[in-house]
Design brief:
Blueprint (H helix, E strand, L loop, with lengths): L8 E4 L2 E4 L7 H23 L2 H15 L18 H35 L3 H38 L19 H11 L1
Antiparallel strand pairs: 1-2
Length: 190
């Protein structure tokens, strides 16, 4: 006879067969499906929200959402066979190309200008460094002077002491002006 296992089992022709199922229940299948769908949605969202992919996808999705009107044959408005819409599209394309070329020229000018700033001689660079160091030193000096002025004003404030009557520096001396304080003082003295 076979030794009993930890899990309950049944015997078929003397061979132990586990009582557990070999497949998942429908609820379990739906839960697994939901997990995969959620994972896919998160991955798709992360992929589509990357800046490069978002810009590329906009153009393609626009074509899918708003389809181009399809017509039967070619719509021509004049009798010479020239499509006015095609001419308009060519003009718009030409304008866009000109705008792109102008923008590229601006970028090139900026790059050249920045390159000139970067290609300075060593003397100019050392001059700029010296100016920066001088400014730093001047700021440090101003801060030291300001701190010294603050310390001096604090010291003067500390020297100004309220005195009930003239006495030594830092001492108020004399009898207290309030009666209850005077009584407590006398009680302590006794």
């Amino acid at each position: 006879m076979a030794a009993p296992g930890i899990l309950p089992s049944r015997y078929v022709n003397g061979v132990p067969v586990p009582t557990s199922r070999k497949t998942l229940r429908m609820k379990e299948k739906y839960i697994i499906l939901l997990v995969f769908i959620t994972f896919g949605t998160v991955c798709f969202g992360a992929f589509m929200y990357l800046p490069d992919m978002r810009d590329r996808a906009r153009g393609h999705l626009r074509d899918v959402i708003v389809p181009h009107p399809g017509g039967v044959g070619k719509i021509v408005h004049d009798h010479k066979g020239i499509d006015i819409h095609l001419i308009k599209d060519r003009d718009q394309l030409g304008e866009k190309i000109e705008m792109d070329i102008a923008e590229q020229k601006k970028k090139q000018k900026r790059i050249v200008k920045d390159g000139e700033k970067l290609n300075m001689s060593k003397d100019d660079t050392l001059g700029f460094k010296q100016n920066i160091e001088n400014d730093k030193e001047r700021v440090r000096q101003q801060k030291k002077e300001e701190d010294a002025r603050k310390r001096q004003s604090e010291m003067e404030k500390l020297k100004e002491i309220k005195q009930e009557h003239p006495g030594g520096e830092g001492a108020q001396g004399g009898a207290p002006s309030e009666e209850d304080v005077l009584e407590k003082r006398n009680a302590v003295k006794e």
